Amino acid sequence: MFIIGDxxxxxxxxxxxxxxxxxxxxxxxxLISWVSPDPYNPIVRFLRTVTEPALRPIxxxxxxxxxxxxxxxLIVILVILFTQAFLIxxxxxxxxxxxxx
Length: 101
Hints:
The chain has helices at 2-33, 42-62, 72-97. It is an all-alpha fold. The chain has one domain.
């Protein structure tokens, strides 16, 4: 059973790293949106391509903008933080209970 526990812990840690990386990408996109970057810049296009699938559904629900601010990145970051605090920690605890680590 320890193999399953180790697997769950490894998956949880990798997911935590991916979520942390994605959180910083969302923050960078939010900061870049304040300066009106060149939309044809390959870095800007990559960042928008990566974040739009997460931001678009929230914009549809909440509305694109709340006054002058786009709050969809903030909501995505809060969802990521909740996922890290709840799901990741729960998976790691489950992995340890199954004999991992």
